[in-house]
């Protein structure tokens, strides 16, 4: 009897665990919608960074945009900062990165993101979330009062988290897939 229980228990677990995984699989149509949402959030972040870094943005508006930008990220995410003059890449908590960006010692700052593209398909993780990576190129230009210019182009990888969430609408639980940005890792910095 014990031998039968030892065989049936693992088979039962496998049967139910496969059903759970199958329910969380993303259809092709849903994946396209998720990809579109992920790219849109990256484009939103690009706009927010331009506003925060722009020296003509009023302080109160900059702080409001920082709050909006932070909402795009998963908790505990970090953003990398590099320079042509330093080999080390520094990583900052998301809010701290934006505060530092707003306080840069340049009179003019121009930040542009381009060539935004997926480099990896979404992969299911043991915690039930899907993870992917989007690559972007960032062009940074800063000019001081004295006319000194700094320019660089940085290739960055942005981790994308996709997870199923539940909200209540009119007393009913409704499930949906949400996209959050994760760490932004510097891959290469060029002049």
Key terms for this structure?
alpha+beta, 4-stranded antiparallel beta sheet, single chain, Nuclear Transport Factor 2, Chain: A, globular
Q: How would the blueprint of this fold be written?
A:
Layout: H1 2-24, H2 28-53, H3 59-70, E1 78-83, E2 86-93, H4 94-102, E3 108-124, E4 130-143, E5 149-169, E6 172-190
Antiparallel strand pairs: 1-2, 3-4, 4-5, 5-6
Tell me, what is the CATH class?
Alpha Beta
Q: Within the largest sheet, what's the order of strands?
A: 3-4-5-6
For the residues shown, what is the average pLDDT? 87
Radius of gyration over all CA atoms, rounded: 22 Å
Global outline: globular
Structural class: alpha+beta
CATH topology: Nuclear Transport Factor 2, Chain: A
Low-confidence segments, ≥5 residues, pLDDT <50? 1-23
**Largest sheet composition:** 4 strands, antiparallel
In the CATH hierarchy, what is the architecture at level 2? Roll
Strand content: 35-45%
Helix content: 25-40%
In N-to-C order, the SSE pattern is HHHEEHEEEE
Can you characterise this structure?
The structure is a single chain. With about 190 residues, the protein is α+β, with helices and mostly antiparallel strands. It has one domain (about 30-190): Roll (Nuclear Transport Factor 2, Chain: A). Helix content is about 35%, strand content about 45%. The protein is built from four helices and six strands; from the N terminus they run H-H-H-E-E-H-E-E-E-E. The protein has helices spanning about 1-25, 30-55, 60-70, 95-100; strands at about 80-85, 85-95, 110-125, 130-145, 150-170, 170-190. The strands form two sheets. It has a four-stranded antiparallel β-sheet with strand order 3-4-5-6, with helices on one face. The chain has a two-stranded antiparallel ribbon with strand order 1-2. A hairpin with a 5-residue loop joins strand 3 and strand 4. Helix 2 packs antiparallel against helix 3 (about 60-70) and helix 3 runs antiparallel to helix 4. It is globular. The termini are far apart. The model is unreliable at about 1-25 (pLDDT under 50).
